[in-house]
Give the backbone structure.
Amino acid sequence: MTLAGKRILLIIGGGVAAYRSLELVRAFRKRGASVRCILTKAAEQFVTPLAAASLSGDKAYTDLFSLTDEAEMGHIELSRDADLLVVAPATADLMAKMANGLANDLASTALLATDKRVLIAPAMNVRMWEHPATKRNLATLQADGVAVVGPDEGEMACGEFGPGRMAQPDAIADAAAAMLGEHKVGPLSGKRVLVTSGPTHEPIDPVRYIANRSSGKQGHAIARAAAELGAEVTLVSGPVSIPDPPGVTVVRVETAREMLAAVEARMPVDAAVFCAAVADWRVAQAGEEKLKKDGSGPPSLGLVENPDILATIARRKEGRPILVVGFAAETEKVVEHAKAKLARKGCDWIVANDVSHTGEPGSGVMGGDRNTVAIVSAQGVESWPDMDKSDVARKLAERIATALKDKQWV
């Protein structure tokens, strides 16, 4: 995807991933963008202004109180002369400053002074990423309209493994191109679509949780397909290890209750597709410390029912989406169970699929690349052949576009 003629202000935060920001400068310029860089003081511990200037072909900026740069209110000009501000790596400290409106250096001041869109690529230790403070700051930034790409999951410089690695430079450049590209004209142009994807994780204690095998592949594919048809798409995703779809606003959650809150906060929409495999139950009292084996046998885990996200949205009296689509992952009597779920939940369609294993290693839909579904509605059942999940997504997005146009549900 091209960035020809676009101007990007790249803010480099102080983390080990800063060295990859130099690769990001190359990726931006390869796509035709002009790049200016701001380095925080911490970033200068990992990369030099000279390296950033050499690769960008423009001066690198570091000092809020530069006599020459600030003579013409440089932080204002830098923030407003760009088409897009990209923060990579977005450290926990930078995210906290952004979320709380702090402005005590050139980077944070430029971010507060901008009237342009902002894309962040978080990178930090997994424990910092999963800290409640970082989660709050991320939620605030997303509510303010800041776009997020990554982080990826993998091994950290500190030796730990988990989410927290900065997204690949090409993935960040693709996300920037999607944000700056002309809005696609298609059958979903002007429509707002919300998609849920992936599993939820319900904590047992600080290190264990209840989950399922959902990979998020189908939900992410649906979000991408809807965006490609011109929709403004919000993807509410549980913990997954697959990349964010380009051109989509991604909201990350872990638990069912967090997912419901994120969905409700983004109402109203024209269509909502609930593809996430939400855990039915959670532990009533999750342990504050790791549960230990003490010889008395396994602990008794009292379970309580999680909120029903699909039914909650389908039964809204105000702000209900025009079209509400649920998914039913079944291992037997797929269509029969889907029909019952349709009546019970109050939604418009159920996309039913068989997720049973055949006995072969790696078999089953969850985690796989193919799917066989049936669309169940009050008008009947339409069975689709076995397809790649991306093909299922495209066909479903096209069907949603037709339904919203004709006001006919199947």
Notes: The chain is about 30% helix and 25% strand.
